[in-house]
Design goal:
This protein has 191 residues and is mainly α. It has a domain of 101 residues: Orthogonal Bundle (Cytochrome Bc1 Complex, Chain D, domain 2), CATH 1.10.760.10. Helices cover 47% and strands 0% of the residues. The protein contains 8 helices and no strands. Helix 3 packs across helix 7. The radius of gyration is 24 Å and the shape is elongated.
Amino acid sequence: MKKFIFGLIVGLLIPAIGGYFYIKLGMMPVATASAPLPMEEKIAKMALKARISKEAPKSSPVTADETNMTQGAHVYVENCAFCHGFAGEKASFAAKGMFPLPPQLLSEDMVTDDPVGVTFWKVENGIRLTGMPGFKDMLTPTQMWQVSQMLAQADKLPVQTKAALAKPAAIAVAAPSTAPAPPEQQKTKRK
């Protein structure tokens, strides 16, 4: 019996010590460009799903009417589009540098499958180790519900809401100029 207990203790200590040195010696991939660890995505998704199913609100105090969804669109443009993008566009440069890549929420088949309470939970609390911040200290509960309602209806938005989701001109990326520099900035060669 003593050998069994000793073997059990050793069997538990070796992986724990090995894991400690794997992390301590800098062998664990932590860069956004690194491949995920085995089972990392599965474990993270399982933990997130379990927590959300336990805590996400089952109903919304904010209705999915045009006014609320349009307000939600304004919240989205100001706070979410930088990472989650605009309709019909590819991921932004900032989003491409994140791991995991933030979902492009206004693409064809994204959040509209999720219950509005699930989206609200994610907006309110954020998601650890993904870059998704929690907005409960930055937005009011009404604003978080409005953006959640807008995302839940993203495949069937009213015209006014779609217009509010248009990419603002101030964020539009201009093409680099190919015009020559002014003469005073050009260097002249002397012989």
